[in-house]
Request: fold
Amino acid sequence: MRSRKYLILIMFILAILAPQLLNFYQNYSKEHNSTENTPETKIVNNSIQQELIIPQKQLIKVPAPPDKPVSIPILMYHEVGNGPDCMWVSDKDFYEQMKYLHDNGYQTITLSQAVELLTGHYDTSHKVVLSFDDGYLTFYSHAWPVLKEFEQTATIFIISNLVGTPEYLTWQQIKFLDSNGIEIGGHTRTHPLLPTLTTLNSNVEIVQGKQDIEAQLGKSIETFCYPTGKYNSQVIQQVNGAGFVAGVTMVQRKASSTDQLLLLPRLGVYKDDPLERFIEVIK
Reply:
């Protein structure tokens, strides 16, 4: 009789404690079985964050002496690693160029940032713009890893109708680069010689190319590159009317605060250029 009373008492106590024991077991299981909280997963997650968020160097604006124009080299690249004709640089040469910039205190900035400095008459010493025409896939596979290593940035001009085709960047890659501080600019829809088109067709190329990119990025773009550097007064007006703030050409010299913002010159970087020429160009 006494043992039966003890059994009933034990069952009563277990009934009271059962919900608390179940809750303890569930919490214990989550803490020890969830891969999300393991040290290995935390390392993976941290590495992903580091991959997606590259520190951006602050653009310091120091007034320049008012008695003379300020200038900045805007370098023109196409492909890195391989490419047609002379419009590419080798992996080795590109790495050496970026290392030189890093080791000698140069800061790469976007074209939009360069416009800020030029129009505000700020000091542009040791500032360089890296611009890449056409949006080739080699930017992502060859140039981007080097830029990331040296914490550099650049501006890419995209031909919107070629995105996702063989040898060109995909929209996913373009969005990734944009989120990591690479400026995306317009380069028309199909890369035609704009001055040879009708007024309607050239405007479609400029405006709709811009709209294609903006629809994908979810924000406006402000910089433009004239295909093969060709333009006329009509094309300039259309670029301005589309809402672009700055445009780059293929005129070979540094960009100056005295230049028209829609006709900024650049300095080409080509296959087999020795490092000495690169150094001379950016001085």
